[in-house]
Amino acid sequence: MAEVVIVGGGMAGVAAAYRLKKEGVDLLLLEAAPRLGGKIRTVRQGGFLVEGGPDASVRYKPALLALGKEVGLEPVGTLPAKPAAYILRKGRPHPLPEGLMVFVPGDLKALVRTPLLSLGGKLRALLEPLIPPSPHEDEALGTFIARRFGEEVFQALVAPLAGGVYGGEPEALSVRAAFPQLWEMERKGGLLRSALKAQKARGSREGGGLFFSFQEGLFELIRRLSEGVPLRLGTPVLGLEALRGGFRLHTPQGALEAEAVILATPAPVTARLLRPFLPQATALLNAIPHTPSATVSLAFRKEALPEVQGHGLLIAKGEGYRVRGFTWTDQKWAGRAPEAYRLVRAYLSGEVALLSEAELIRTALEDLNRFLGASLRPERAYAFRFPEGMPVYGLGHLDRIRRLEVALTEGLFLAGNYLRGVGLPEVAESGQTAAQRALEYLGLKRPSTR
Known about the structure:
alpha+beta; 7-stranded mixed beta sheet; 34% helix; globular; 450 residues; single chain; 21 strands
């Protein structure tokens, strides 16, 4: 019998395993796929480095930076670009205003100058410090931004940015769950004031100081964290039983027993495993919607691709495109494509993300050609599908998660992107938190030996 079995080898599961291994716990990590990483998929081929899932993390959330430092990885920043990103609105690409802090302008000059907003939209946004905090315990993102800055700011600026993170329709996202910084900023004197103060203390996307990855891609962190971790790949958990003082896990290779279990699996998989003995937790998990997502990376000869600016392009709603946006990968990161090539990445979400890989590639190429006014044919193409997609943090999400954690049986712990953040730092933290709770549980069970 292992002390802890971790189910799921994505960022959350690997972070949990790394923490427990450091503490000398007898553990086993089970992963259904033939590879670790979950949504982190780094492909090296022919001089290209392609990220299938997330391509970066942010420096102002230190959990991932700290893990990288522990295993000897130095972060690499994005290449400087000014402006770094554009938003396509009303058929034209407009530079993203400099100095944004969680969608909020931290540079008033940039806000006044941006062509994304009309004069009326800018004047309405500047009234934000006069708006009182919401009397409610939570609020939908669309309502929150429109109340504080006006509807135009939401449609032109916040919706494309939020959609690029969560996919789906960002209007209904819970501010407290999805963007807790905004909720806190409102209560600390208003969003504009808080953003202006915070901007002085953080890096900018223009200078390459906000986002980071690693030289060999994000999977290098997974590889190093999992070194020496007992694991079984290609081993799905078909069923989970709660025993007296432990758990039994059923796999195609036979049954395993553990004193504690960490489920670092997507919410739908977690719900399936808990259904036989925790119906309330199962119902709460099934109430979390998910939006399918996909990415496509296209490689072109450098001379074939028309010149583009910055690191990428986000696309506002109503522009008639099926992709959410494009990243000009070779302009964002050094060393991601051979010298003679360009690399473009497209992000898709919703029903279109359920297309086959060939259809995803065709869709991304058609939208890219439409934007560039070209008839390009890629030299290479890579498609990555995530049917389980991204969790949608709707109103009441945090309360749902609190009730879920109360509904769990002793010795069972959860980790993953459906809990308290979809970013890599939050997902890694969820794994480390689950590991800490497992350690405390084991210590309480055997106070004389641990």
